[in-house]
Amino acid sequence: MWADYAALMNRLRVFVFFSVLCLFACGDDGALSIEAAAASFCAGEAMLDEMCGDEPEPAAECEADVRSFLPFFRSDVYADLIDCTSARACDDSDDPCFTARGLGVASTPGSEAYGERCLAKIQGCAEEGFSNDLCEATILTAETVGALDACLALPCSDAGTCLTRVFGDG
Fold first, then answer.
1. pTM of the predicted model as reported, rounded to 2 decimal places
2. Which of 96, 97, 88 is nearest to 51 (CA)?
3. pLDDT averaged per 10 residues in sequence order, the chain, 170 residues
4. I need a surface site. Which of 33, 74, 86, 149 has the fewest CB within 10 A?
């Protein structure tokens, strides 16, 4: 019972925080700026960490990390992404929050076809061992999906490195 109450209170705090933040930081289209989304995402993560008995990442570090990856995602999903990651239970993975199906939003055009091609490439390149996480692109920007898709034309020895470089990790 206490866990249910704590989870409910956490969701309420996130909702109130996000609502107030959006009053000041949402654009005319209702989408959050990258800065506001990063602050809100990290506040939600910190509340979840505290509720789960974990040490929160320092806000400045978290926000810098989030600002580096948010540009790869569509701005219209920032709020849904924040709500989903903040509302999960302590032991729940955040993986569903990074999919269109998990957020209940439309997929980026071309992203599902890319995902199928990516999974096929991974199967054909098993010896390279790159992650299938790079195949989930349904909430990424069309530009990011296009850059990832171009990597699939490369030989197996280069495809995994190319996929991670799209995100600046290589």
1. 0.76
2. 88
3. 46 44 46 90 93 94 94 93 92 92 93 94 85 89 96 92 83
4. 33
pLDDT reported for residue 138: 94
Helices 156-166 and 111-124: angle between axes, nearest 10 degrees: 140
How far is CA 109 from each of CA 22, 70, 138, 164, rounded to the nearest angstrom? Answer: 27, 18, 8, 21
pLDDT in tens, 82-105: 999 989 999 999 999 999 999 999
Residues 6+ apart with CB under 8 A from 54: none
Q: 26: which residues sit within 8 A by CB, 6+ positions away? A: 32, 36
At position 106, the amino acid (one-letter code) is A
- The helix (H) or strand (E) run that includes residue 24 is helix 2-25
CA–CA gap between residue 139 and residue 136 (Å, rounded): 8
The closest alpha carbon to 144, from 156, 136, 132, belongs to 136
| Whether 47 contacts 87, CB under 8 Å | no
51 contacts 6 by C-beta, under 8 angstroms: yes
